[in-house]
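Appendix B. Raw example, untouched.
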Amino acid sequence: MAASAARGARAYENLRPIPNDRIEIRDDPGKGRGVFACAPLAAGALIEMAPVIIVPAAQCALLDKTILHDYYFRWDGAPDGEGTGAVALGLVALCNHSRRPRARVRRNYARETLDLVALTPIAAGDEVTIDYNCALWFEAED
């Protein structure tokens, strides 16, 4: 009984929001909402650990018919292929695409998080962008 309670407590810890004063949501006149650095971020810095809800592969086809299609990530399998999905419960889902991204998303299977990691130094005020690693449904600006 005690072991089961301890496992439950650990699982709950993974779902609690992680305070993050390094990034914020702002509007960009050309792109709409995006994620921007509030403070300088070094290359390699862990910007965010976003807990996820894992979506079974069979249900991803249903998500594809909703507005969430543009905001969920592939959890396993090929980016454009079959596999489970992950709905991020963090700001990583609002990062805009760039062919020259400033950050990348790393799947953390052990913690069930999507970790946003800086690829280059990011200055305060700069947008935190990622490469969507899939066929784009829009014309990329950069």
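End of appendix B.
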